[in-house]
């Protein structure tokens, strides 16, 4: 078995080298960093199994570096803080941010080895790196969202209230929902809505003391809405928080008789709007780096820098698919760019790769309109003498049938063209009764 990798960060050379010698004698692989700048570079290139981090350093204190890694999605390993004159308040602050433990200098040999061994066991149990609420950004609008979510999470009510998250598709609503989920308790993302009709209490039994999350409740049938209403009213008995997301105007749907009035009233008691990425574009560079760093780590890919021009282009781009679209573009850049750096040319290539196809399809539609014929694949004109929702469904049905033929049933390509995340795409096709075939 490969030896475990430990990163020691301390500005005092004597302490760094002493810790290295002790840990190497125990069979560990040890890297040394004399300051935060060196530690940042090492962390970007690889994930150590454990970090020993001094609190007091000249260029950046350890608490700030710890917070920086937490904000950037890089706090995916146990970090043990070290200090020669630490205080209880400092230890509490470090633990709150995500530090695993705290060692006071001078560090006793047995205490050091025991703490490192315990941290290594914890490291093996950590889940894969993933985005979290902190990843959404630091802008004022996101900071306010975090404060409101924190207030909901800390509510002293007897039972957790249901929560409605309102925002465009791909805006990060699930990150908000997961923030309200307590670690070590069940998390149930409900995508098979028929369970709401057939076995709502079984859902609560599976999620006992945890969270049930429904990503888009506007897609529920009236019967499924009744099932959700029953589930929410019984949730207190199971200590389950029900969190629902939507990108639709539920009040409008309720006025049209398409959404249950009682369910809407119940969900409206605790509702939050999750901002679109267009509302906090200043967060895009940090979001891009977080997504990229997670990919380098999870996919075990070599680290590559994203240059400033590329980051600026991503910040200034339009994101109709929101954070989900940004995530897809960054993953594409990482997988398909050839150079040592991801450059502006790479961003332009990925952002515009569908332009030729879109222009071609648009030309077919325009030409057809000029000569008075329908484009191939659109079987019928949409009947405009019907309610908006039915007309929209009819158009979407034709839209998806058209593109399914173009991509020969390839769901990856269909998701890219439509700008929908795969899970949502499958639900949408099921709702419209569109068969997946080439």
Kindly summarize this structure in a few lines:
This protein is an alpha/beta fold and 438 residues long. The protein contains 20 helices and twelve strands.
Key traits:
438 residues; alpha/beta; Rossmann fold; Helicase, Ruva Protein, domain 3; 5-stranded parallel beta sheet; 20 helices; globular
Report on the architecture of this protein.
The protein has helices at 13-25, 36-45, 62-71, 88-97, 109-125, 140-153, 173-179, 195-198, 200-206, 222-238, 250-255, 261-268, 284-298, 308-316, 322-336, 344-351, 355-371, 388-406, 411-418, 422-432; strands at 5-9, 29-33, 50-54, 79-83, 101-104, 163-166, 187-189, 211-214, 241-246, 271-273, 305-306, 341-342. The two termini are 48 Å apart. By secondary structure, it is an alpha/beta fold. It has a five-stranded parallel sheet, sandwiched between helices. The protein has a five-stranded parallel sheet with strand order 7-8-9-6-10, sandwiched between helices. A two-stranded parallel ribbon has the order 11-12. The protein has four domains: 5-125, Rossmann fold (3-Layer(aba) Sandwich), CATH 3.40.50.2300; 135-273, P-loop containing nucleotide triphosphate hydrolases (Rossmann fold, 3-Layer(aba) Sandwich); 277-351, Helicase, Ruva Protein, domain 3; 355-432, no CATH class. The chain contains 20 helices and twelve strands. Keywords: ATP-binding, Nucleotide-binding, Phosphoprotein, Transcription, Transcription regulation, Two-component regulatory system. The modification 4-aspartylphosphate is found at residue 54. InterPro entries: AAA_lid_NorR, CheY-like_superfamily, Homeodomain-like_sf, HTH_Fis, P-loop_NTPase, Sig_transdc_resp-reg_receiver, Sigma_54_int. One of its GO terms (molecular function) is ATP binding. Residues 135-335 form the Sigma-54 factor interaction domain.
């Amino acid at each position: 078995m490969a030896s475990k990798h430990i990163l020691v960060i301390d500005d005092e050379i004597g302490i760094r080298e002493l810790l290295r010698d002790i840990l190497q004698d125990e069979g560990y692989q040890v890297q040394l960093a004399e300051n935060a700048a060196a530690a940042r570079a090492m962390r970007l290139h690889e994930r150590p199994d454990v970090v020993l981090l001094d609190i007091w350093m000249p260029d950046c204190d350890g608490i700030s570096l710890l917070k920086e890694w937490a904000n950037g999605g890089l706090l995916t390993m146990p970090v043990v803080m070290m200090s020669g004159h630490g205080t209880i308040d400092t230890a509490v602050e470090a633990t709150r941010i995500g530090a695993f433990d705290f060692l006071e200098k001078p560090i006793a040999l047995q205490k050091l080895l025991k703490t490192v061994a315990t941290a290594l066991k914890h490291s093996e149990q950590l889940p894969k790196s993933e985005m979290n609420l902190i990843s959404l950004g630091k802008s004022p609008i996101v900071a306010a969202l975090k404060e409101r979510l924190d207030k909901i999470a800390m509510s002293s009510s007897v039972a957790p209230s249901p929560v409605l998250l309102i925002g465009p598709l791909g805006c990060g609503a699930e990150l908000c929902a997961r923030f309200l989920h307590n670690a070590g308790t069940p998390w149930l993302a409900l995508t098979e809505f028929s369970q709401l009709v057939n076995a709502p209490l079984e859902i609560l039994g599976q999620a006992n003391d945890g969270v049930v999350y429904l990503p888009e409740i506007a897609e529920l049938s009236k019967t499924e809405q009744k099932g959700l209403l029953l589930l929410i009213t019984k949730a207190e008995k199971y200590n389950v928080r029900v969190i629902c997301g939507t990108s639709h105007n539920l009040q409008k749907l309720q006025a049209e008789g398409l959404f249950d009035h009682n369910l809407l009233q119940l969900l409206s008691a605790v509702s939050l709007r999750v901002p679109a990425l267009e509302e906090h574009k200043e967060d895009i560079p940090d979001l891009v780096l977080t997504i990229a760093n997670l990919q380098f780590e999870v996919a075990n890919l070599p680290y590559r820098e994203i240059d400033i021009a590329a980051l600026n282009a991503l910040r200034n781009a339009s994101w109709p698919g929101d954070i989900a679209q940004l995530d897809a573009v960054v993953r594409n850049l990482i997988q398909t760019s050839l150079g040592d750096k991801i450059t502006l040319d790479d961003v332009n290539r990925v952002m515009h790769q569908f332009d030729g196809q879109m222009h071609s399809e648009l030309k077919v539609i325009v030409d057809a309109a000029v000569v008075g014929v329908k484009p191939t694949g659109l079987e019928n004109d949409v009947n405009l003498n019907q309610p908006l929702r039915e007309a929209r469904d009819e158009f979407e049905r034709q839209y998806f049938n058209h593109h399914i033929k173009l991509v020969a049933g390839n769901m990856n390509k269909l998701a890219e063209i439509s700008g929908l995340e795969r899970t949502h795409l499958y639900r949408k096709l099921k709702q419209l009764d569109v068969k997946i075939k080439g």
